[in-house]
Structures
1.
Amino acid sequence: MSTRLLKQGLALWILGLIAATVTLLLGFAWAPSIDNETMNAPAAQRIFYWHVPSAWASMLAFTALFIGSLAWFWKRSEWGWRLHVSAAEAGVLFGLMAVTSGPIWGQAEWGVAWDWTDIRINTFGLLTALSAYLVVARRSQPDGDDARDTFSAVGLFGFALVPLTYMATRWWERRHPGPVVGPGGGGLEPEMATTMWIGVFSFMLLLTGLMLIEWFMVSTEQRIARIQNNMDGGE
């Protein structure tokens, strides 16, 4: 079962990389550019097709982190802990993709890479930092119920930033653009929308593949720990 998870995860990850490459090519070569009168740096807008899907993938990872944290904290569920770990790892990766691509756009368009007064930008940065803390702290401490309780509590607390981040541009729009799809969205031209949704699909594949791989790794670590404990108990 675990080996099958690994194979499925690797297959989805490879498919996601291929689809993400197609997204980049379409974003640079096919999707139309924004009118020069609308934006200061219309060429920089093309990073949108990487930035937005990676941000969405990270938000889904943060949501999965909350579910896993809740399942462990409430039910002591092993699958909940595995989901917590997998989602934290994914949150770091996709969060970093978003917070590194966004400043490239921001520097070209606004003249500043990071606006410390913008709620959306800063709460998203905090979410990514929280995931990074969970990943680093877990790897630096021995596994145990007390450590899991602490990390799950952090995951539960941090989830409060998810709805705040999602609604920030609707409540306090400053530099970060408002929504372009969904409720309150301004809409996109067909070619731009197609490219963006291909990007979203590719990042969903990447997210699912990565979490399956991480799930396999956590399961393997737990099996090795059980074997080690049995050997130590038998001595």
2.
Amino acid sequence: MKEFTESESAKQSGRKKFEEMIQFLKNSKDIKTILVEKTDRLYRNFCDYVNLDVDKTGYSVYLVKEGVVLTPNSSSHEKLVHGLKVLLAKNFIDNLREETQKGRLKKASQGYFIGQVPYGYKKLNPRKTIIDEQKAPFVIRAFELYGSGLSLEHVRNQLYDEGFVYQPAHNKISKGQLGKLLQNINYVGVLKFKNIIYEGQHPPIVSQELFDKAQLSFRKDNKPLYRDDHNFALSGLMTCAECGCAITAEIKKGKYIYYHCTGGKGKCSQKNKYISEEKLEKQFDEAIKTVNLAQRHVEYIKQGLKECLKDKKEFSEEIRENLQSEYKRIENRLDKLLVGYCDGTISTQLYNEKSIAKL
């Protein structure tokens, strides 16, 4: 009836084509069958899994490569194995993300920008970033004006009045974008990644003195220099027994973590009662220790793990073959480039530019 091809990352919910498929199924009441290559091509997170729960939706999911058909009438064993595959698919995505982060961290520690460069710079290749002569004066003037004591609103207006154009489509920069620009320490020639500052491979646009002067202006305007984001271990796992609101966490005295009811639905006697994370962790440990698995469930899990590991191995092998093919293609091009350079048909400058770009 219809084919959906998803090219976006599946590590989180919200994929455009996936959502289109869900809506199509909702609008087509007589269509109850979904064909897909295998489990980790359909969903790799729990939100997608819930949206296609066969018991709730009545759909039949054909996992063609796995030779499995999942329907509301499937046995509990088949549904358990399927659920395990979804769980391990998510674990596979998390592992890929960890490996990607390792690569990003290594590149950042060497002083190279990851992804898009800040306004005022331009990237010639992954390891070469230079100053954009057209945009850099805007950055320098912004720091000078804000460091002189003007407010963000006055700075953006002054830049516009002096003829500085932020972008062709937006001549005047917004206050939010200006604030982020003025707090970007990368402009002094360093690289900040995951709150760690490394020596950058790019040239500075503003001096350390001018940057520090602008940061003092933020303090004068009562604007925070830094925003602390915390990922509390037990957030999102609990609700208040009295009012049903979420249990939130906050830091006391700079280092102690306490949890309490948000009281979002009105008055709640538990809102002002706090419990430390240490005590909560002990309660969670005690609850988890009471969970026991029957031997038949253990066997189901073993079987599911074996099937998922087999799929993971096949997928890894496919990626390895693709990477080898790409490596050979690039190596072949470099060989041709070297032959042209040796024959004198390619200049030294062109050879250097192309070989660096390929690498």
3.
Amino acid sequence: MPTSIRVEHSGLLAHLVFTSDKGVNVLSSALLSALKSTWKSVEESEARVCILRGEGKAFLAGADIKEMRAFDAERAREFAALGQDAFDGIERSGVISIAAIHGACLGGGCELALACDIRVGSTGMSLGQPEVNLGLIPGFGGTQRLPRVVGTGVALRMILSGQPLNTDEALRYGLITDTGSADDLITRAEALARTILSRGPEALRLAKKLTRTAMSVDQVAGLKAERYAFGSTFGTGEAKEGIGAFIEKRAPTF
């Protein structure tokens, strides 16, 4: 069975799970199309946070090399556009995304993780862009998102050498935010998700949007947008409730 997707809902938290009976999850054209429609269903649900994870040996080992073997230049561009569109949708979404990574997270898998808002990892994993080993380059956003996360120097080292980062290196360079054993990976991701879900939903939406656009807008324009958004939080009632709860030493109700 090729890699497939299932979604598990638990109130405001969703899990998007990649799974294959071969134990190795790969990104095919069919899976990328399914990811687009599946993510739309997540957005249409009550979920505010979604954990993306893989079952089996790896989070996502990369793109489907056997499918790519038959590509010509035009078909390759269509494949890249499909992946970029799917990942852009996750990055721009109002749903907060957490990639819970174990095993191999390579090529398109790494690019999907980069499109997520937060990445948590586990010992023994590897993250990388090995496309040059096949005479290719990243096509799902790796050349654009990776330097924004780890800096140009580290990104060039990863992309030009094709060599992945191990868990400690990924943590050091900020590609993941924390690590622990693979056994408690989902527990840690869910704990983070629950913390986020306890915060004001409109504040979360605005904070994600502003932080996501910070690297692509002029700082003066970014500060103006932040100032406007800061003021708007007082118009939703969330700030009044949050401040009141703090002063009254109680948990806020958002």
4.
Amino acid sequence: MSACSKEDSPSSKILLGENGLFYDVLELIHTHYVDTVNVNKLVAGALNGALNSLDDFSNYYSAKDYKTLMEVLNGQFGGIGAEIKIIKEGVEIIAPLDDGPAFKAGLKQGDIITELDGKELKRLSPVEIIQAVHGAPGTTLTLTLLREGKPLKDIKITREMITDVPIKGQLDGRVAYIRLSVFNNQSAEHLKKTLDDLNKKLHETFGNAMTFQGVILDLRNNPGGTLDQAVLVTSLFLDKGSAIVNVTEKEPSSHRTFYAQGTDILKDIPIVVLINKGSASASEVLAGALRDHKRAILVGEKTYGKGSVQQIFDLGAKGAVKLTIAHFTTPDGHKIHGKGLEPDILVASEPTETPIKEPSSRDKDLKPVDHQKQRALDLIQGLSALNKW
């Protein structure tokens, strides 16, 4: 191990110099550890330990693991349909995707997977965990789960080919309801088309002179996506030049602010955004920008608080490092990462069983009521009655 140069940082000198701490610990391991030492595994563990001490999203990948990771992420594989975060206990569910295997199996935001098919995840590397989650569509996994610290009965889940989740829209009277469950490369384009289609349906039903009473954007359990799409989607609801998000990097000269590029396509129409603990990243960019510009009211629960940007640095034969390089703040400078966004109107996310009779049904079965959505509808109708926004 070579000595550090004068240009090295103080932490590098302490850890990596010939008389440094890391050097001393390695010497102790090689001299006294009872079993044969796998040097590559030892170094990878040390690097991951250092990176994980920074945050939950930074990792080291060996050259072999990085190649495997890229093959898995770029290939056609089945999965469980959930945004996940690797933590020391295993895997935390950030948000299950609508109608995906995890959603169908009843997994919720905050659930922690501790074992897959009997394998303890805390003993696996990040890439081994990703490999274990992915597999051929139609194959099954047995998940051992913790929910709020308590073990649940093991759940069997069938992998599916995960495709882009479409944007869903419907009319509730004259209110447009838009469910945006994930940000992908066509989110802004599809969202605009969905609004156009609902507008045509509105005119067919109520006459060409009618406009929306309001729009509900449902971002609950939306784990986010690319920053580019977050900016493009937000631009649909703000006028050109309005700040959308500040990206704060290490060097002050690298700080950037992204601005809306178009015109507000819903000018003077009230917007309510539904959020919860599974709303993260790009969802928080959108919700935060609309609130800061007093363009929307946030209803639901506090968001996840994932306001950071990761970049993968390819080190060639030495592997790769995924490192957090920036944080988001809202246009008014409110920090998102680790804090989340508080709703303007707090409404518990758990539905309750209330009798509702469907128009085409005579049965008296109980159906879950979406109280957050109902509160949003009530709010829009109240604003419409007062002719205020």
